[in-house]
Amino acid sequence: MGKTQKSVGRHIVAELWDCNPEYLDDVSVVQEFMNNAARKAKATILNSTFHTFQPHGVSGAIIIAESHLAIHTWSEISLASVDIYTCGKKADPWAAFRYLVSAFQSKRYTVFEIKRGIFEAEEGFELEENYKEQSCESAV
After folding, report:
1. Residues with Cβ < 8 Å from 6, sequence gap 6 or more?
2. Measured between alpha carbons, how far is 74 from 22 in angstroms, rounded to an integer?
3. What's the CATH fold of domain 36-117?
4. pLDDT tens digits for range 45-95
5. What are the residue ranges spanned by the domains of the chain?
6. Which of 53, 78, 124, 134 has its CA 20 to 30 A from that of 29?
7. How far is Cα 89 from Cα 109, in angstroms, rounded to an integer?
8. Average pLDDT value for the chain
């Protein structure tokens, strides 16, 4: 068997421009959208924290069993900066990204994906086989 490159996760880094500024200043809306994005990705939500800044902006993070989603907003320039990092095959960070573009009514965006934790392994090696299924009864 030969060697191949594998990675532990995918990290989407995005700037959502020309968003609805009212949404970007409302912590309850931002938190709802981020939780919905995690669900769209089929991620397991473990915990979240969000904070409103004065006079503008919201920051927050959702910890998921598969890693995290984070956001920082600047309503005065209609910008949401978003990180979506998922590990394993179950969660789809692009599904979360597509949902957030629509939810925040972004008219344009920049986005790229970073492969995280790249390593060399034997063909057929699957990292997930080394972990037991996570039990998340306290998940939101």
Report:
1. 118, 119, 120, 121, 125, 127
2. 11
3. S-adenosylmethionine decarboxylase (3.60.90)
4. 999 999 999 999 999 999 999 999 999 999 999 999 999 999 988 999 999
5. 36-117
6. 134
7. 25
8. 91
C-alpha dihedral sign at 38, 61, 140, 116:
positive
Q: Most distant CA pair in the chain: distance in Å?
A: 59
The CA R_g of the chain, rounded to the nearest whole Å, is 16
> Tell me, what amino acid is at 91?
A
Catalytic positions are 67, 72, 87
> E strands within the chain?
3-6, 9-17, 45-52, 58-64, 67-74, 79-87, 108-116, 119-122
Q: What length is written for the chain? A: 140
Q: What is the dihedral of CA 25, 29, 31, 37, to 10 degrees?
A: -120
